[in-house]
Amino acid sequence: SKLTNLGHLEMTWRSRVHFHPLLVRILHKSRLRYYGKPEKKMDMPYQAYFEVADGSGMMSMVLWNSLCPEWYHSMKVGTVLLLDKYTIKTSYPFKTHPTPGDSQMKRFATIEISLNVRDPHTEISIIPEEMVKPEWGLPEVKYRFITRSELDDLPNNHSCDVIGLVTFVGRAERARKREHSEDFWLYRWAHAIDGTSDQPFILELFATSQPDVFEHIHPMTYLVCTQMRVIQDLTENPSRTVYLTTSNESQIFITGWHKGQPYTKDAKVKNFIQWTKSQSEADQIKKTVIGGYYPFPRPPDSFLKY
């Protein structure tokens, strides 16, 4: 059928009601958001957004309500979608934005694609990767992997992807989302090494919409975390520690989940796999730790400094 592209949509969306089908690849995926309130009677108050792209650029796509339980887990980073009967809306201004792996890609930030179950019912088709044709001009998923030796030189809030061998994983902890709130964030600390530094990556991993992965992070697993944010302690603390925290668009993968993921082609991922082959598993297991209380960032060593 006749297709349109994101660039054409941005130029013509105000003058149309019906749009031609779109063929796009998912480049980023947010966690699932629940926005239910006791006073509002909604069956499935869920929302998730994705960044999708074609040859003309990248745009946000929002999946609403009952489409979330139906489609969220099938829509992975790298998945190619054929969309029909979608609507176009002006972008929500306070949404977080992932950092694209390809800095040259054009971003259409004024509008977003809205996928709904009614008015109209959006038609979604997943195109298997082996059927995707090069002439469609869909961009590949690109990453921003860093090694541990590069981390200390990165600025605060820099976005990056990491891969490492887990040497420590803490127990799951909770933090209140807001003071006096009944809502909590669930998170755990982990250390991962990649052979480029004596220091591990220190990772603050908040529970994303991947409970099956979050609950099974163990020492000796290969851990990939995407769209992580660098947290640099900007005080004059001489023992300052750099760590990484998850963002709204972070995805986490462990051993058993890597097969078929787009990052397996990345050069730094391949270098890491080569390094692990040179390591003795028995030696590494001796250095691993699991559970316990992990106070971080560490308090100063004297009460006066505190």
Describe it for me?
This is RADX protein. It comes from Mystacornis crossleyi. The chain is mainly beta and 306 residues long. It folds into 2 domains: 6-136, OB fold (Dihydrolipoamide Acetyltransferase, E2P) (Beta Barrel); 148-304, OB fold (Dihydrolipoamide Acetyltransferase, E2P), CATH 2.40.50.140. It has helices at 6-12, 67-71, 148-151, 211-214, 267-277, 281-286; strands at residues 22-29, 33-34, 46-54, 57-64, 80-84, 87-90, 107-115, 123-127, 159-169, 173-176, 184-193, 201-206, 222-231, 243-246, 252-253, 289-290. Strands 1, 2, 3, 4, 5, 6, 7 and 8 form an 8-stranded mixed sheet that branches. The chain has a 5-stranded mixed beta barrel with strand order 9-11-12-14-13. The longest helix is centred in the C-terminal third of the chain and has 11 residues, at 267-277. It starts with 5 loop residues before the first helix and ends in a 16-residue tail after the last strand. The model has no long low-confidence stretch (mean pLDDT 91).
